[in-house]
Amino acid sequence: MISSLYTRSLTNSVPLQSLIASACGFSRNLSSVSASGQGAPTASGVPWPWLDPSRPQVLPSYLTQEESRPKPVSLREAVELVKANAAARAARSDPRDRLSGRPRSGTLFDESLELVLHTALNPKKGGEQVVRGSVLLPHGTGKEVRVAVFASGPDAALAKELGADVVGDEALISEIISSEGRAITFDRLIATPEFMKPLARAGKVLGPRGLMPNPKLGTLTSDVARALREMRQGRLDYRVDREGNLHAALGKVSFPTDALLSNIAVYLAALVESRPKALGGQGLEGYLRRVVMKSSMTRPVGVSLESCNEVVSRHRAAAAAAGAAEAGAQGAAPAAAAGKAGAAGGA
């Protein structure tokens, strides 16, 4: 209807407002409105709230999805914005709190800082396009996890001594299968190689929950002590989803900004190490298309790819310098020992 009225307006040189008013059955004198558009018209000639005959007609413009997105900021600015948004949400009062007279449990909590990476990966091709791995975050994730260890003999005793929440055996595996997963009371699973075959029987239950042990993730290992220690310290497992995106919780908003940036740098550096060779470019170029940061309950903030590359470059340079210093110290120790031995022999 509007398009036909607009065509008639252009053809007959009639104001579009008049055609709309006549089509809708309004009888009013639009000329009663002042030239400025702010005059008080008569009761019989009230103009439409969104139409002003004295002003030029401007059709609405619509932004594309790319244009409507906010401009990406640096990693540090993004972390500070997310922390500020989470603090503002925590400070905002809820009308339901005032009605009940007491704070509502569960509405306020220490939110996780989440990083969402939109990559150029195509997991449908399989192979190296399915990026997955694990990384030990220097400041942990801030989450308390329950760890189950499936081992026997000395390894089971060691797991109990180190504080494993659950030490499983074949009886627990049978219970998990029969209960269809209701017997699972843990968040992470570590297993020794001897339990790989028994756990395979529970693959339909453990697999969808991401609990099947995997040597690439360090959850299928003979070194139970190391795996359990890394789980407690905050090891992060990551895997690209079906859409080619990576989601990771890299700490809590209560963490200091520098601690969160350190976790992010280690995580991004690990992704660079897992980068498929088929992708063009270097570092994160050609690997990531868009980076978004948010907390559990706040709106996302765009992050510039340039700042991500800078953080990864600084982290890798610092790691290389630390490795060179450690190698130099290890090489100096035997030389010093040999010098002392030579001095003693000369004496």
Automatic annotation (TrEMBL):
Gene3D superfamilies: 3.30.190.20, 3.40.50.790. GO terms for cellular component: ribonucleoprotein complex; ribosome. SUPFAM superfamilies: Ribosomal protein L1. Keywords: Ribonucleoprotein, Ribosomal protein. Belongs to the universal ribosomal protein uL1 family. This is CL1. It comes from Chlamydomonas chlamydogama.
